[in-house]
């Protein structure tokens, strides 16, 4: 950790100024993941504010996923490795609040997913394929054991999350990850339980094989085929839901 110096807080909403400064310090790596921030009373003195203001600022940063607050002995406010969880949570709230229809997720998926297939092929390494293999294995035994639909859905989504987690572009990874995670949380999709899991598993296996064989053409072909059959499921799910509404 490099030395962090607090300037006296200025704004009317003091805690925002405190949070802004601490956030900037974290984003510019004056504090790095794992560092413990100075204790509340120390920060309060440095910023010239009350401890309650520091607490409010820290709470905000925790919601943003930049720190985590641990209580008890050995506790404190620790800098975390930022991930996409808070962004996805905010997006989910926003999309659901706006009542974004299923078709919009579908449309976006249809446009975006095929554009990164070459990048997946290019950036996929041994570790990436091992994660995919572990997912396929877990999916297979869950199918065999007749696991509940919810569990199978999670596993099948996880395959796609892993797949698009390495396209060499964090912006695309976030957008595509959000499409996978959020599209399938749309309540009308959650309510459908008519998936042919064995078929999905077989297609995942084929996709992984093409990737492992470094066969770009086969990879593109089975990915597009899979997107289409998954789209059928979505489409059917939507039809079922609209007929329920009528
Ligand atoms: Zn799939």
UniProtKB/TrEMBL annotation:
Entry keyword DNA-binding: yes
Species of origin: Gordonia namibiensis NBRC 108229
InterPro entries: GntR_C, TF_FadR/GntR_C, Tscrpt_reg_HTH_GntR, WH-like_DNA-bd_sf, WH_DNA-bd_sf
UniProt-recorded name of the protein: Putative transcriptional regulator
Domain HTH gntR-type: 12-82
Nucleotide-binding recorded as keyword: no
One GO MF term attached to the UniProt entry: DNA-binding transcription factor activity
Record Pfam families: FCD, GntR
CDD domains reported for this sequence: WHTH_GntR
Keywords carried by this UniProt record: DNA-binding, Transcription, Transcription regulation
């Amino acid at each position: 950790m490099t030395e962090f110096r607090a300037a006296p807080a200025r704004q009317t909403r003091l805690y925002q100024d405190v949070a802004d400064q601490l956030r900037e310090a974290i984003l510019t790596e004056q504090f790095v993941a794992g560092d413990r921030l100075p204790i509340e009373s120390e920060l309060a003195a440095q910023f010239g504010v009350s401890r309650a203001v520091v607490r409010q600022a820290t709470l905000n940063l925790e919601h943003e996923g930049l720190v985590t607050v641990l209580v008890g002995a050995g506790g404190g406010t620790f800098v975390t490795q930022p991930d996409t969880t808070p962004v996805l949570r905010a997006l989910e709230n926003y999309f659901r609040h706006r009542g974004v229809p299923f078709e919009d997720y579908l449309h976006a998926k249809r446009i975006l997913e095929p554009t990164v297939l070459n990048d997946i092929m290019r950036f996929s390494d041994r570790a990436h394929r091992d994660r995919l293999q572990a997912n396929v294995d877990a999916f297979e035994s869950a199918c065999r054991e007749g696991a509940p639909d919810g569990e199978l859905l999670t596993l099948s989504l996880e395959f796609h999350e892993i797949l698009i987690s390495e396209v060499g572009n964090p912006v695309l990874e976030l957008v595509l990850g959000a499409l996978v995670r959020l599209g399938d949380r749309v309540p009308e999709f959650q309510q459908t339980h008519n998936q042919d899991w064995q078929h999905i598993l077989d297609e995942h296996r084929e996709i992984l094989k093409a990737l492992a064989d470094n066969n770009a053409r086969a990879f593109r072909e089975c990915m597009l085929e899979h997107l289409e059959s998954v789209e059928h499921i979505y489409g059917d799910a939507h039809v079922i839901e609209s007929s329920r509404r009528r």
